[in-house]
């Protein structure tokens, strides 16, 4: 069995490829300005400046669009915690530091654009939004104690960036507003480039330390949780987003987990030891179970939606009958 590399050795050996990936990112990333994605002419003062405070009828977003926008925004708001975790598990020097700074600056644009859009268009109650932001950011992110190290962080953020990209794109589609859709597509493009960086970094780690990287990937996929967990109304909002296909188990499997596993050639690698192969088998069994869970989930959701549609039809008929 190959000797396990220490965190210092992993960081040192990976720094040259981090430098290459930073240069590649800087060459292809497009600069954009959050203010270009906000319809400022729709804005008007709130009561503190002599205007009118928010009320429900001012919002043109559906309930699911409001929930998805708030969940995505609060997720982006927690950037200070994400920056701290990545800084603690990467390096403060060289190419590592350059990437952390660049990634943080780019991510910060997302919450700026989304909040300005929601406040200007009065899409959601800005007072409740600020209360939720304060609670969520004050709480921060709490990863499991053993979820540390460059390999764990790189694998986790790969999946998280892809998942966030999916959530932003789906949210844009349900907003029924071309401006919101354009803004969220722009944000999703950032997330995609970030996912590519972390995905390729993890791939390089696989070549450097296959068993250790296999272990990290297995742990991340089996214990994966979206970074927004713990925010106010998380359970209720999450159920609504799942129900309406903003981010559900099928998307998690087909658009997040399987694409990155294929890119890393996890089930094709021949450089694993017996221990690494055993871990890969565990991951394979988990993925098979996840596929079965997806089928059951879709059956339950279809049944629930059919029941709700039938109830709505009965209620409509009853209302029509009472009018007659």
TrEMBL record:
<keyword id="KW-0444">Lipid biosynthesis</keyword>
<keyword id="KW-0479">Metal-binding</keyword>
<protein>
    <submittedName>
        <fullName>Acyl-ACP desaturase</fullName>
    </submittedName>
</protein>
<feature type="binding site">
    <location>
        <position position="76"/>
    </location>
    <ligand>
        <name>Fe cation 1</name>
    </ligand>
</feature>
<keyword id="KW-0443">Lipid metabolism</keyword>
<dbReference type="GO" id="GO:0005829">
    <property type="term" value="C:cytosol"/>
</dbReference>
<feature type="binding site">
    <location>
        <position position="107"/>
    </location>
    <ligand>
        <name>Fe cation 1</name>
    </ligand>
</feature>
<dbReference type="InterPro" id="IPR009078">
    <property type="entry name" value="Ferritin-like_SF"/>
</dbReference>
<comment type="subunit">
    <text>Homodimer.</text>
</comment>
<keyword id="KW-0275">Fatty acid biosynthesis</keyword>
<feature type="binding site">
    <location>
        <position position="191"/>
    </location>
    <ligand>
        <name>Fe cation 2</name>
    </ligand>
</feature>
<keyword id="KW-0408">Iron</keyword>
<feature type="binding site">
    <location>
        <position position="110"/>
    </location>
    <ligand>
        <name>Fe cation 1</name>
    </ligand>
</feature>
<feature type="binding site">
    <location>
        <position position="107"/>
    </location>
    <ligand>
        <name>Fe cation 2</name>
    </ligand>
</feature>
<dbReference type="GO" id="GO:0006633">
    <property type="term" value="P:fatty acid biosynthetic process"/>
</dbReference>
<comment type="similarity">
    <text>Belongs to the fatty acid desaturase type 2 family.</text>
</comment>
<feature type="binding site">
    <location>
        <position position="194"/>
    </location>
    <ligand>
        <name>Fe cation 2</name>
    </ligand>
</feature>
<dbReference type="GO" id="GO:0045300">
    <property type="term" value="F:stearoyl-[ACP] desaturase activity"/>
</dbReference>
<dbReference type="Pfam" id="PF03405">
    <property type="entry name" value="FA_desaturase_2"/>
</dbReference>
<feature type="binding site">
    <location>
        <position position="191"/>
    </location>
    <ligand>
        <name>Fe cation 1</name>
    </ligand>
</feature>
<keyword id="KW-0276">Fatty acid metabolism</keyword>
<feature type="binding site">
    <location>
        <position position="161"/>
    </location>
    <ligand>
        <name>Fe cation 2</name>
    </ligand>
</feature>
<dbReference type="GO" id="GO:0046872">
    <property type="term" value="F:metal ion binding"/>
</dbReference>
<keyword id="KW-0560">Oxidoreductase</keyword>
<dbReference type="InterPro" id="IPR012348">
    <property type="entry name" value="RNR-like"/>
</dbReference>
<dbReference type="InterPro" id="IPR005067">
    <property type="entry name" value="Fatty_acid_desaturase-2"/>
</dbReference>
